[in-house]
Amino acid sequence: MISHTTSHSNPTPPSGKKDYPYPLYAPWWKVEEGKKKFTVPIEIIQGKVKTVFSTDTPEEVLIQYEDRVTAGNGEKDAILKGKGNVCCLISAVLFEYLQDRGIRTHYLSLPTWRAMSCKKLSIIPVEVICRNIAAGSIVKTTNITQGTLINPPIVEFFLKDDSRNDPLLTPDRVRLMGINSQPLIDITLDVNNHLQALFTLMGFDLVDFKLEYGYDNHGDLFLADELSPDNMRLWKKGTLEKFDKDLFRNDEGDIVKAYKHILKELRRFI
Ligand code: AIR
Ligand code: ASP
Q1: Whose CA is nearest to atom 3 of ligand 2?
Q2: Is the pTM of this model over 0.85?
Q3: CATH code at 44?
Q4: Does one domain contain both 100 and 129?
Q5: Is 246 contained in some domain?
Q6: Is there a single domain that holds both residue 57 and residue 100?
Q7: Helices (H) and strands (E) in the chain, counts
Q8: Distance between CA atoms of 19 and 236, rounded to whole angstroms?
Q9: Among the three residues 67, 97, 122, which one is the final residue of a domain in this structure?
Q10: Residue 3 lies in a domain
Q11: 209 touches ligand 1 (CB under 6 Å)
């Protein structure tokens, strides 16, 4: 949803959703007066858990991470204090880690603790999932049992459309949608190798994760969206304790505490 907010008033929440004040935080430029780097953004795209502000640099946006958490394509949601902050910081650490290893990402800098400056992209409307261990939807929709090792890893495509419950796509359907899947598969497997190496060192299994991609206005492909335990499954090696959004999906624990632990560990290893 796009609204023009020259008056700084909060935009209207997406229809059909609970009436949360959007954005959940005061817009970043009001809080960070001292550090203001851009003139007041005028356009807002409100996602489920992030708000995208345009800036006075046409090819840059600010992505503000909100304290909202959703699951089941918006079926379940809550506001958890500190969640936006920790997801933003983990994402920044991981985007920088991947950039240092030659992956092109939308991440540019971290002007505040809960908003990142990113390249403006036009997002490809598919969710790219990589799986190393069976969990979640692959277990629900096949006879593969939870915990089965998937080696070599697989890459799957889902339509990015909550109103249709993000259905699984076939390679032919991806092609018919006009999407060249090969570069997405190649980069995703590359990302998997780098993230797996890091999380293995930290003592976690990277079970699976979701990526999104987009093109800049020169037609170059970049890794986009977010890289946090909201988009990946992380199991502690040995105990199989979860440190990801499944804790929220299944009412099994405090995700903010779990995510903070991941951030702390990341800082020890990167
Ligand atoms: N994911 C998928 N849609 C949104 C998200 N965050 C992530 C899940 C999980 C992986 O993609 O968090 O890490 C696979 O999800 P699923 O539901 O297909 O098993
Ligand atoms: N369907 C996704 C999940 O369960 C995303 C969401 O609902 O926000 O994580």
Answers
A1: 71
A2: yes
A3: 3.30.200.20
A4: no
A5: yes
A6: yes
A7: 7, 15
A8: 36
A9: 122
A10: no
A11: yes
Q: Which of 60, 91, 122 is the last residue of a domain?
A: 122
Range of the domain at 259: 124-269
Decide: 122 in ligand 2 pocket, CB within 6 A.
no
Task: Please give the distance, rounded to the nearest whole angstrom, from the Cα atom of residue 264 to the centre of ligand 2.
Answer: 25
Domain count, the chain: 2
Whether 12 is covered by a domain: the verdict is: no
Same domain, 184 and 106: no
Q: To the nearest 10°, the Cα dihedral for 87, 139, 196, 157?
A: -80
Q: Give the pLDDT of the chain (270 residues) as one tens digit per residue.
A: 333 333 333 434 334 444 455 666 666 555 454 455 555 556 678 899 999 988 878 899 999 999 999 998 778 999 999 999 999 999 999 999 999 999 999 999 998 889 999 999 999 999 999 999 999 999 999 999 999 999 999 999 999 999 999 999 999 999 999 999 999 999 999 999 999 999 999 999 999 999 999 999 999 999 999 999 999 999 999 999 999 999 999 999 999 999 999 999 999 999
Query: For the chain, how many residues are written?
Result: 270
**How far apart, in whole angstroms, are the C-alpha atoms of residue 78 and residue 71?**
9
CB-ligand 2 contact for 154 (6 Å cutoff): no
| Centre of ligand 1 from the C-alpha of residue 127, in Å | 9
